[in-house]
Amino acid sequence: MWQRILVAGAVMGQLLVGATALAQDEALGPPDALQYPVQASETAARAVTAPFLRKAIEDAADLGLCEALMREAGHSFPGGFRPQDCTPAFASKVRAGDGIVHWRSENARPLKCGTACFGRPFASATRHVDKPNLRETMLYGRLQFKIDPPGPVDRDLTYGYEVHVQCKAENGARTGNIEVKVEVGDPVLGDPHPLESALDFLLLPVQISRRIESTIRGYLRTIPTAVIGGEACRSIGVSLAQDPKFDAMPFDLAQATAGGVRPGLDAVGGVLTDRARVEFLSITRHPLPLGVAAAHAQPGAVEAGYFNVFLNGANVAFPPPVGAPEGLRLPPEGGSVALNYCRTVALGGADRLQLLFVNALGGAVWSQFARGAAFGASAPRRITTGRTIVVPGTPKPRVVPLREFELLYRIVYLPAPAVSAASTGTRDGERPRPPRGTRGLPAELADASLESASSATPCREI
Predict the structure, then answer these.
(1) Lower Cβ count inside 10 Å, N or C end of the chain?
(2) SS (H, E, C) 284-324
């Protein structure tokens, strides 16, 4: 069963990350992972290795066991349990598997269990609905202990966990820093033994599991800070070794860039690049559908007036009107507010333009346009947020999306400036080069992109 879960996870991850970027218009649910940071090759220069992760997780679990044994023996730690508080005598008990709680067996330790308790990494992506998603590498594991008080009975104690490794990039950046997160699930206690009739023993496993849990979670949070140090990166990937104990999550180091980036230049290469300007024209709030209780509109909530758009991951907040710090006024009964905002983004080597529209009440919606479609440059488009609500139903309540706030917007494609014949040395009779940024586009789309750039209306850049 455990192996089947790991294989299914690996297949799902490859489908999520390996799929080509297709156009999406007004989609609900998690947006596709951003193009950057990219997928690393198996031979990338640096890596977060399985031996490192196995040891870090095992060390954190040993500390949890040590604290549980010491507290059971009557020790207290008013300032919280620290690694140095684990005395040599109790550390020896943990290594020997002695005491009321210990590893289920010596082979249950992460450094020795193979794939039985530490899965193989696979490519995946985060699944946020209201913010951009990044590709990541993850794996599943489990910690297996035994609670073994004096007497003929014992109880298994298991913690499932997930390891997430990302090249964590902020605000649409193409590079970031390596981040390792270990998320430990709730404890699962094995079935009670028929002899467990005393109330004290029924409560004991829960008490012990709580003592272990806080320590394990606390020390696993420090893994990346202690060893990796958040190295600058531009990719994350998967490397499966012949021996699963030596799997790795490879990444490429970020390339250093000198100085800032001048307006109109690619934020990565420092060269003239094509851009897209997204013009935000209006927001309309739709009234609740018939039969939906008014409480779902959250009357009076200031969050209804605050909106964000993420353009290829870069956060764009709509400023509140002058004299209206509570944000745009859009009552539950419905209404529209005209806007005159825009944001221009450098495209560089981007293969898509992704737009994620979010309202602070929790609704979100996204669209995505490929380079071959001039990044969606066309007449104004509409996109309407959706958030999940529960409404009465027969025979049971139904979960439905509430389509609430509609954004009217237009995308203007701005190819990089054409290079003149004088500057390129083009001789008479030679075919001129196409304007930068339109290479590879169908002729009609290239012409349309130039036309839309010249007809753009003035707007307030935000």
Answers:
(1) N
(2) EECCCCCCCCHHHHCCCCHHHHCEEEEECCEEEECCCCCCC
* Non-local CB neighbours of 176 within 8 Å, separated by 6+ positions: 37, 166, 167, 168, 169, 170, 232, 233, 234, 254
Q: Which contacts (CB < 8 Å, 24+ apart) does range 85-90 have?
A: 90/66
Partners of residue 67 on adjacent β-strands: none
**Cα 278 to Cα 174, 343, 407, 435, 462, distances in angstroms:** 20, 5, 12, 21, 11
d(CA 289, CA 384): 14
112 DSSP 8-state letter: T
Task: Kindly indicate the confidence band of residue 230, based on its pLDDT and cuts at 50, 70 and 90.
Answer: confident
Buried-state track 10-42, b at ≥16 Cβ within 10 A, e below 16: beebeebbeeebeebebbbebbbbbbbbbbbee
pTM of the predicted structure, to 2 decimals? 0.79
Amino acid at 325: P
Query: Parallel, antiparallel, or unpaired: how do β-strands 176-189 and 155-168 relate?
Result: antiparallel
How far apart, in Å, are the Cα atoms of 148 and each of 69, 73, 107, 153, 438?
A: 12, 15, 17, 7, 70
CB of 160 within 8 A of CB of 2?
no
pLDDT per position as a tens digit, 155-185: 788 888 999 999 999 999 999 999 998 888 8
Look at residue 10 and tell me whether its pLDDT is greater than 70.
no
Q: How far apart are CA 385 and CA 360, in angstroms?
A: 11
Using DSSP's 3-state secondary structure scheme, residue 338 falls into strand
